Amino acid sequence: MYATTDTLATTPATQGGRSRWLALYTLCAGMLMIVLDVTVVNVALPAIQDDLRFTSSSLAWVVNAYLIAFGGLLLLAGRLGDLLGRRNVFTAGLIVFTAASVLCGLARTQEMLVIARFIQGVGGALTSAVILGMIVTLFPEPREQAKAIGMYAFVASAGGSIGLLAGGVLTQAISWHWIFFVNLPLGVLTTVLAVKLIEKDKGLGLGRGTDVPGAVLITGALMFGVFTIVKPAAELGWTAPRTLLLTAVTLVLLAGFIVREATAATPLVPLRIFRSRTLTGANLIQALSSSGMFGIFFLGSLYLQRVLGYDALEIGLAFLPTTVLMGLLSVKYSEKLVMRFGARRPLIAGLSLIVVGLALFTQAPVGGNYFIHVLPVLALLGLGGGICFPALMGLSMADVKPEDAGLASGLIGTMGEVGAALGLAVLATLSATHTATSSKSPLQALTDGYHFSFAIAALIVAASVAIALTVMRPKKQPKPVTSEALACEAA
């Protein structure tokens, strides 16, 4: 069922020119909060461990509790945006995320922090799942949409490096509690601006898509899946009985969801959206590219820390060229590239540069020099990401009907989150296994383990290039009707 004319008439696309860009800045501010939080927390983990007396294994739950809630709820949150109104879901997510941040900052026990982080993940999912859908609704014209998505891609990528710097400064200058407290003024300001600057949309209403069994099945499948990736698979291995059992539970829930969506009168995720080759291909590319990129940023940071001896602040500064290049291309040139060449060619070119960068990282030695062995890699990753990710975001929403924009936004976010978690678990496990079985010196064995994972990551992203070349083929345009052809037909 398509949205009615009355519903579509009240969407944010009706906002004026200047107010639309102010609304975009507000959406990007919300996204920046979510992205900052991930890397800020990673930098502060040692201080959190010392203060609250976490063990090495239990400390992982400070990250995993957030990931499980965030990855598990993204798809449901995106669909709720279509049904209840995307601005409503966006602002509700900001409120939940901000309140949970305060709870994290006030935490004096391990249990309180882990629970608050889970609630933060819920708020993060609600906030981020609908942003891309709101952007394509605000900017239906191709040139403006490409520019807006470029800005969104810049914020989503640049926030990570800013978080590394901010986390180091706040943790060292004040305390780890303040990495969460800073979200209070940011969250309140962004919520107020969202209410004032983003036009309220009605949504389709719960009666147009309420599917409680489907919601329970897909949320359960995603949560079990993310939990399996970040916990037993990463710690015990992929063939451990517990990992296999949880994987089986995930697959059963996923199969039940597919059956439910194929038979439900008002499905949570209408399976018809996957008839779009562009949408399906974009989500596969998102999962694979996120697997390679996220895992490499994590392992690359470990290489800088454990092999080259960098501290947290130096690691953040080391990754700044990636952020600068990605931001410059995303904001200033991505729109021009998409309008000049279409989205597919920049996507392929950008992914190919990432593959080359990852392959080059396999040559970084034990006594590596930053300018010779690291900076060229980070430059290629920044160039590739700045070219391909805005194009990919645009392609993921290209064939989506207005009433499915929130769902498609949540879907691409879910694929990125699950892909990142899967890539991190697989690459980290392969790296550790390769290091453990090496007979070389400890530092050389550690470096070889990183090299092995860098090579696997390059192959993963190369697979996404293959999908872009095959699945994302441009549709054949009908031949123009010439006067000669019309004369022949008349004869």
TrEMBL record:
The chain crosses the membrane at residues 21-47, 59-77, 89-108, 114-139, 151-170, 176-198, 210-230, 242-259, 280-303, 315-334, 346-364, 370-395, 407-430, 450-471. SUPFAM superfamilies: MFS general substrate transporter (SSF103473). Keywords: Cell membrane, Membrane, Transmembrane, Transmembrane helix, Transport. Residues 23-476 form the Major facilitator superfamily (MFS) profile domain. It is found in: Cell membrane. It is a multi-pass membrane protein. It comes from the Bacteria. Coiled coil: none annotated. InterPro entries: EmrB-like (IPR004638), MFS (IPR011701), MFS_dom (IPR020846), MFS_trans_sf (IPR036259). Its main location: membrane. NCBIfam families: efflux_EmrB (TIGR00711). This is MFS transporter. It comes from Kribbella hippodromi.
